[in-house]
Amino acid sequence: MKYIFLVPDGAADYPIEALSGRTPLETAQIPFMRALARKGVVGRVRTVASGFHPSSDVANLSLLGYEPAKYYKGRGPLEAANLGIELGHLDIAFRCNLITEAEGKLRDYSAGHISDREAKILIEVLNAELADDSIKFYHGTSYRNLMVYRDCAKLGLDKLTYWPPHDILGRETLRHFPRGKNSALIARLMEHSRQVLAEHEVNKVRLDLGENPANMIWLWGCGTNPSMPLFFDKFGKSGGVISAVDLIKGIGKLIGLKVPDVPGATGYYDTNYLGKARAALDILKSDDFVFIHVEAPDEAGHNGDLRAKLACLERIDKMIVGTLIQEMTGDYRILISPDHPTPVMKRTHTAEPVPFLISGTGIGAGGFLGFSEQDAAASEVYFERGWELIEYLFKGAR
After folding, report:
1. Residue 75, in any domain of the structure
2. DSSP of 366-380, one letter per residue?
3. By the 8 A CB rule, do 9 and 23 touch?
4. Torsion (CA) 75, 79, 81, 87 in degrees, nearest 10
5. pLDDT for 167
6. 20 to 30 A from 250, CA-CA: which of 128, 145, 238, 291?
7. Half-sphere exposure of 5 (CA within 13 A, CB side)
8. Contacts of 242 by beta carbon, 8 Å cutoff, 6+ apart
């Protein structure tokens, strides 16, 4: 038996007036997902446990079967794992966004989805101007970068209050700087980054082209190194993770799954959807399980871009789900679930349960007509503990 777990990040949404009160999942042309729903079971799952912020790190840990209360130590160290950054037990890794600040407010959490080339240049400048024996910046992908603060866990920096930049769009930056004991150490770095980045040639060119400049860093999502059991030891399945983002790839590496690089996988609307499907099929030639993560719908939600969200869902359906269905042979099951909602009207994550579908060998038809929030709400199948959903995929019954 082969097992496929597809996560269209942030795909769940609210009813939208422009769609006559329907959600993007209800409206998008997703015939392959709907066909799977008609042949299988649709339900709901709570991926964000009580007490946790509705973030992709917590939600995807749950979907992979790892209870956040036991294993979650922060987002930064998960991304550090993918970049090959070794953390000592007193080191703290921070997510470091390149952002756009204007008139004292956070205008763009991604600096216009700055290119890898430009981001790398700016990270090198930050290292030249702000780094020291304790602090170093690391380039990740586009606006998603890291800062590591060595030997500082005793300062309590991982206990500060931080705000994810996509949650405070349009709000005053100073009011949302880190808060708590020793927070001035982090706030000072963020303040100094303005002076380093604002007049850099990369940003001058971006302004000339009408693009948002990366004129500040935003530090958040910090944590210490986690310890998690290997996926094979926990579930008895070998496999891999397909994703464009360091967070998901880092989780995959930490739990011992294969993490291939997919050419053209960008983590944005233009990602290589077909390449992800092909990479998943390659993994399933020799392994039992593949986890396919697609960031694009989440980015569309954060950007408030309804048209793009619909287009991304349709590309996922045609190029990933369609390719898998047409090329898989033998016994297999497929589970599809967003990690959390990213409503286009809110432009940030929310914590409501999300719809999922499961279909394939050993899964009987449950009388469902489609795959959407409304279809799932009508189902009696519900998982309060998100980390238990993956057992449904493996065992086929509750």
Report:
1. no
2. -S----SHHHHHT-S
3. no
4. -60
5. 92
6. 128
7. 24
8. 260, 262, 265, 276, 279, 280, 283, 290, 291, 292, 293
Judgement on whether residues 155 and 173 belong to the same structural domain of the protein = yes
Contact 225, 96 (CB under 8 A): no
Q: What is the mean pLDDT of residues 255-279?
A: 97
> For tokens 């359906």, what's the residue?
317
What pLDDT, in 10s, does the model give residues 345-389?
999 999 999 999 999 999 999 999 999 999 999 999 999 999 999
User: Helix, strand, coil: what percent of the chain each, to 5?
Assistant: 40, 20, 40
**Cα dist from 158 to 8, 49, 88, 153, whole Å:** 30, 20, 14, 7
H/E run at residue 311: helix 306-315
pLDDT of residue 397: 59
Nearest residue to 368 (alpha-carbon basis) of 321, 360, 376 = 376
Query: Residue 128 domain-assigned?
Result: yes
Per-residue pLDDT reduced to its tens digit, 139-186: 999 999 999 999 887 888 888 899 999 999 999 999 999 999 999 999
**φ, ψ for residue 137 (rounded to 5)?**
-100, 145
Give me 325's structure tokens: 């269905």
Where are the strands (E) in 236-340, listed by range? 239-242, 289-294, 332-336
Is 169 found in the same domain as 114? Answer: yes
Which pLDDT does position 152 carry in this prediction?
86
H helices of 51-139, in order, are 56-63, 68-71, 75-82, 116-130
Print the domain residue range for 342: 2-70+230-395
Which of 223, 239, 268 terminates a domain? The answer is 223
How does pLDDT run across 315-326, given as a tens digit for each residue?
A: 999 999 999 999
